[in-house]
């Protein structure tokens, strides 16, 4: 590189300003940060491809199974079948992005540059949270719809696939013969049920991302934050399942990812969990508490 | 103007900065000197609000740093060149910083041109050499056209060309009337650039004075005298309270008397002089002497001249 002296470059005068730098500029800045690194695109791409691809694969498997064993149509939840991989795997992938949104600032040292430019840490933290949550929400809703639509398209010949335009009757009791199922008892899955499941699951995945974000702010270390997010969202439910049945069901309600089972369901119910929205409130409380602790530490600790 | 008052910062049991007070006056280059580990970076981090002081206050133009309306328009600081997200392009790195202070987008292109990084603006910064990273960091400091600039060890690890570039840049910025606060553990770096010096050792203030005073008030100033009647001269000057050491080549070094006094004394005593030279201690020597006690990790340097005269003394008035 040629030696460059500064004398030959003149900077233009900056426009005068009044007031003070606030949330708006920092929001724009955080959006620039998120859109200008490749890891954002990799994680969102992985989320989309895996969620939608696996919804198609699992749909094809289900369609073949339902053809060979019509009895499995009893209580078959086509919506949940398409959303299952999105909410299991999607949580995991977006949790990585959530944690990295904040830990990458620490691992690269960027946090010190960021906080020198904008020392009002509350603004920086909130902007980061808002921008990331917004992006996670949009991506989750889009992925949820795509996973549903692709999954249902694959299962469309089964007679028990779900739809956003008309209600479907799902047999839950009846006689099963190799040729057909004669329903004696059934439930009607309306487009409203389906829409609630799609949106609810997207919200759950978004909250999982916010939980990982909060853990990232607390732990400040990428590997540590991702490991604890996986622990909280995946390992804790498994451990709870191993507990004695007398109390594992009481504990399961308080696990942050439990809401996925009820939010994504359109057929049947979970006797051991609350209904969809109260159960989702548990997840939201987890997210709020972790983010609040993260925000407190973000402001209080040396950068 | 930056005012540091009674600043104390501890990391666990270790006191990094110990009751430090000084002011950085506007419109001049203030050098911030101290051996490695003296607390220079910690002090700068406290000024910028990155670390919270345990005691004491720091005011920038009378305000806390985090209360500045548009911090980038007031202070441009470069603490670590590599404190950037390497996956982000130079352009986007600068853009996200500019946006926090509502600075216009065109500014990004201008500062990239200023530091000569226009060609690599769209490249991810993880591929940048240290010199290029340093330029990127300086571009960031110039985004808000600040009145005051702060650099922590800006020439560390740079090649000679990079060092020259930084020096020229600092001269240009100083000539524009900006306040510059620059730290270094190398005296020679300051010798031609700084007007004022703040010297610390082990977190404590050692000197706060002009560059001239710093050199003059250290005990390093001596007068070299060459004369055929050395014994007579030594007797004459020691009688006046000066100290004398004899060099290998027969010259006599006199401390505690100026060249004029020695010349006058020699004349009145009838001593012929062949040489009478004021030997000014280099800044490096003055610095070594003053910080001799405060070097945290020291290996014994063979042949280092022990000199107790300047130890523990504070030159200048502080704040």
Task: Characterize the structure shown.
The complex is a heterodimer of chains A (303) and B (319). Chain A is mainly alpha-helical. Chain A has 10 helices and 2 strands, in the order αααααββααααα. Chain A has a two-stranded antiparallel sheet. In chain A, helix 6 packs across helix 7 and helix 6 runs parallel beside helix 10. The relative contact order of chain A is 0.14. Helices cover 32% and strands 25% of the residues of chain B. Chain B starts with a strand and ends with a strand. With 319 residues, chain B is α/β, with parallel strands linked by helices. The chains are: A mainly alpha (303), B alpha/beta (319). Chains A and B meet through helix 1, helix 3 and helix 4 of A and helix 2, helix 3, helix 4, helix 5 and helix 6 of B.
Short description:
With 303 residues, chain A is mainly alpha-helical. Chain A has ten helices and two strands; from the N terminus they run H-H-H-H-H-E-E-H-H-H-H-H. In chain A, helix 3 (78-108) runs antiparallel to helix 7, helix 5 runs antiparallel to helix 6 (191-219) and helix 6 (191-219) runs parallel beside helix 10.
Number of helices of chain B: 11
Helical amount of chain A:
55-70%
Q: Count the helices of chain A. How many?
A: 10
Q: Record the strand order, biggest sheet of chain B.
A: 5-6-7-3-8-9-14
Q: Over the alpha carbons, how many angstroms does the gyration radius of chain A reach?
A: 24 Å
Distance between the termini of chain A: 34 Å
Low-confidence stretches of chain A: 1-7
The quaternary organization reads as: heterodimer
- From the spread of the alpha carbons, the general shape of chain B counts as elongated
**Count of strand segments of chain A:** 2
Structural class of the secondary elements of chain B? alpha/beta
The amount of beta strand of chain A, in percent, is 5-15%
Average pLDDT over all residues of chain A: 92
Largest sheet of chain B: 7 strands, mixed
Beta-strand percentage of chain B? Answer: 25-35%
Helix/strand/pairing category of chain A: mainly alpha
The secondary-structure element order of chain B is: EEEHEHEHHHEHEHEEHEHEEHEHE
């Amino acid at each position: 590189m040629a030696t460059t002296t500064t004398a030959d470059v003149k900077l233009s005068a900056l426009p005068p300003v009044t007031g003070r730098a606030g949330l708006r500029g920092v929001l724009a800045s955080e959006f620039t940060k998120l859109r200008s690194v490749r890891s954002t695109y990799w994680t969102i791409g992985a989320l989309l491809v895996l969620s939608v691809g696996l919804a198609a694969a699992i749909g094809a498997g289900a369609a073949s199974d339902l053809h060979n064993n019509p009895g499995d149509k009893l209580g078959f939840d086509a919506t949940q079948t398409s959303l299952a991989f999105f909410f299991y795997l999607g949580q995991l992938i977006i949790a990585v992005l959530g944690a990295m949104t904040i830990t990458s600032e620490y691992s690269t040292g960027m946090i010190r540059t960021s906080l020198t430019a904008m020392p009002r840490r509350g603004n920086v933290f909130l902007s980061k949270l808002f921008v990331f949550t917004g992006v996670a929400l949009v991506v989750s809703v889009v992925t949820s719809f795509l996973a549903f639509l692709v999954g249902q398209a694959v299962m469309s010949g089964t007679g028990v696939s779900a739809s956003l335009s008309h209600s479907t009757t799902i047999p839950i009791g009846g006689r099963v013969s190799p040729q057909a199922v004669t329903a004696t008892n059934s439930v009607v899955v309306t487009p409203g049920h389906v829409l609630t499941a799609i949106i609810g699951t997207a919200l759950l995945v978004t909250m999982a991302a916010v939980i990982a974000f909060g853990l990232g702010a607390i732990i400040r270390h990428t590997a540590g934050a991702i490991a604890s997010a996986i622990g909280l969202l995946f390992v804790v439910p498994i451990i709870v399942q191993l507990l004695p049945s007398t109390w594992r069901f009481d504990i399961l309600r308080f696990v942050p990812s439990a809401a996925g089972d009820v939010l994504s369901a359109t057929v049947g119910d979970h006797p051991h969990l609350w209904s969809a929205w109260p159960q989702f409130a548990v997840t939201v409380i987890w997210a709020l508490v972790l983010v609040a602790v993260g925000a407190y530490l973000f402001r209080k600790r040396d950068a | 103007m930056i005012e540091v008052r009674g600043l104390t910062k501890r990391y666990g049991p270790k006191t990094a900065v110990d009751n430090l007070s000084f002011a950085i006056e506007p419109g001049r280059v203030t050098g911030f000197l101290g051996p490695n580990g003296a607390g220079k970076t910690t002090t700068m981090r406290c000024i910028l609000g990155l670390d919270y002081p345990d005691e004491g206050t720091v005011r920038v133009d009378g305000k806390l740093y985090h209360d500045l309306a548009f911090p980038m328009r007031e202070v441009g600081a470069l603490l670590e060149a590599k404190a950037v997200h390497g996956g982000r392009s130079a352009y986007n790195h600068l853009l996200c910083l500019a946006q926090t202070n509502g600075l216009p987008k065109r500014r990004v292109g201008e500062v990239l041109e200023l530091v000569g990084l226009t060609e690599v603006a769209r490249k991810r910064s993880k591929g940048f050499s240290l010199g290029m990273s340093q330029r990127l960091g300086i571009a960031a400091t110039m985004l808000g056209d600040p009145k005051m600039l702060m650099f922590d060890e800006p020439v560390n690890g740079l090649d000679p060309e990079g060092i020259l570039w930084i020096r020229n840049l600092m001269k240009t910025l100083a000539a524009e009337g900006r306040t510059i606060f620059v730290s270094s553990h190398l005296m020679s770096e300051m010798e031609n650039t700084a007007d004022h010096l703040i010297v610390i050792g082990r977190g404590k203030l050692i000197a706060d004075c002009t560059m001239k005073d710093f050199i003059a008030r250290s005990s390093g100033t001596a007068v070299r005298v060459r004369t055929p009647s050395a014994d007579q001269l030594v007797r004459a000057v020691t009688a006046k309270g000066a100290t004398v050491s004899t060099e290998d080549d027969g010259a006599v070094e006199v401390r505690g008397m100026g060249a004029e006094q020695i010349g006058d004394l020699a004349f009145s005593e009838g001593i012929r002089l062949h040489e009478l030279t004021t030997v000014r201690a280099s800044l490096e020597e003055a610095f070594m002497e003053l910080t001799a006690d405060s070097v945290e990790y020291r290996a014994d340097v063979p042949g280092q001249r022990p000199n107790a005269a300047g130890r523990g003394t504070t030159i200048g008035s502080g704040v």
